[in-house]
From TrEMBL:
GO terms for biological process: membrane protein proteolysis; signal peptide processing. This is Signal peptide peptidase-like 1. InterPro entries: Peptidase_A22B_SPP (IPR007369), Preselin/SPP (IPR006639). It comes from Heracleum sosnowskyi. One of its GO terms (molecular function) is aspartic endopeptidase activity, intramembrane cleaving. Pfam families: Peptidase_A22B. The keyword Transmembrane helix applies. The chain crosses the membrane at residues 16-37, 58-76, 82-104, 125-144, 150-167, 174-192, 258-280, 301-323, 329-347. It comes from the Eukaryota.
Length: 371
């Protein structure tokens, strides 16, 4: 156990940037989910779909995640190129989803013309959409070639935002089931898997690098510039920051190591933030802009959840520094986010409404798929 004064290393560039990034991603993901739902309602767009989890699906997520962990633990080298190919497609699609609001904002701000140039899948395809496709493809190709950690983080953040926008929680009851199950899941695979499988399964999978199919193809064809293509890739299932970022080094670790945080440790709490933000919007008519949220009156569950997430994340990183061992982040994040929401809503006599969720609306324009 390290002395408490070593917690000052949380102010080092790497952990401080990791905390700021994670908090910003969870905050932004919740707003993107709210805006995405409102856009679908406004445009009556039935081509896009959100998935609303029910109780059985919430219970199955930790089970399926455990099966996936074991497959990657035992067969990662065999399926790594397939995983890379799948991740490449998912990352390009998520990056397009992530960047499209910024392109729309630029068009409206500067009054840019955006003529239709083609049709794709029975939908008009505009010039800006075509350019965005090229941009996203270029970023993904650059990641495949270089494997740079900044590009990895960008793709990981995009995946997180897209997931939170498309997968919804209907109420706090389902949210509590999901979070408690993942709370147990995270603790088991980090603390107890080594006793059964002979190694820390979660850490082993999180730190494995996938084979780069681009390098494999270039090598087989003896293409020029092979030395510029990375052989191994960090898949964008986590955000990473070098421990020596801007010259800062957390003691006890090699300067070439990375600090990392899994996407699940951002995406799962973000689902709770998105849920309470939608509740805030319903009750207080909160504007779907981070800059205007302070205009809300009385219903600010988003701030309690976001503050709790920050406290939980700092606690998880602190525990890692003091114990020099990997920590299951959800061990700290679940109580620090779900707890305040339940307690405060009970004090406000709104727990029942949050617990059961909004009653189904027969005129709902959003296309919900129960899977």
């Amino acid at each position: 156990m390290e002395p408490l004064w070593k917690l000052v290393y949380l102010l080092e560039p790497a952990p401080f940037t990791l905390i700021l990034t994670a908090v910003a991603v969870t905050f932004g993901s919740a707003f993107r989910a709210l805006n995405y739902g409102k856009d679908m309602e406004r445009n009556r767009d039935m081509s896009e779909a959100t998935i609303t989890l029910d109780r059985s699906q919430a219970l199955m997520i930790p089970v399926m995640s455990s099966c996936s962990l074991l497959v990657m633990f035992y067969l990662f080298s065999s399926v790594s190129q397939l995983l890379t190919a799948f991740t490449t497609i998912a990352s390009a699609s998520s990056l397009y989803f992530f960047l499209s609001p910024f392109i729309s904002h630029l068009k409206s701000r500067f009054g840019l013309a955006d003529p239709h140039v083609s049709r794709c899948c029975y939908k008009p395809f505009t010039r800006s959409e075509g350019l965005l496709v090229l941009l996203c493809s270029g970023i993904v190709i650059a990641w495949l070639i270089s494997g740079h950690w900044l590009l990895n983080n960008l793709l990981g953040i995009s995946l997180c935002v897209a997931f939170v926008s498309h997968v919804r929680l209907p109420n706090i009851k389902i949210c509590a089931i999901l979070l408690v199950c993942l709370f147990v899941y995270d603790i088991f695979w980090v603390f107890y898997s080594e006793r059964i499988f002979g190694a820390n399964v979660m850490v082993s999978v999180a730190t494995q690098q996938a084979s780069n199919p681009v390098h494999t193809v270039a090598n087989s064809l003896s293409l020029p510039g092979l030395q510029l293509i990375t052989k191994k890739l960090e898949l964008p299932v986590k955000i990473v920051f070098p421990r020596n970022l801007l010259g800062g080094i957390v003691p006890g670790n090699n300067s070439s190591d990375f600090m990392m945080l899994g996407l699940g440790d951002m995406a799962i709490p973000s689902m709770l933030l998105a849920l309470v933000l939608c509740f805030d919007h319903r009750k207080g008519k909160v504007s779907a802009s981070p800059l205007d949220i302070q205009s809300s009156k009385g219903h600010k569950y988003i701030w309690y959840a976001l503050s709790g997430y920050t406290v939980g994340l700092v606690a998880a990183l602190s525990a890692g520094i003091l114990t020099h061992s990997p920590q299951p982040a959800l061990l700290y994040l679940v109580p620090s986010t779900l707890g305040p929401i339940v307690v405060i809503s009970w004090m406000r006599r709104e727990l029942t409404e949050l617990w059961e969720g909004e009653p189904p609306n027969m005129n709902e324009k959003v296309h919900l798929i129960e899977v």
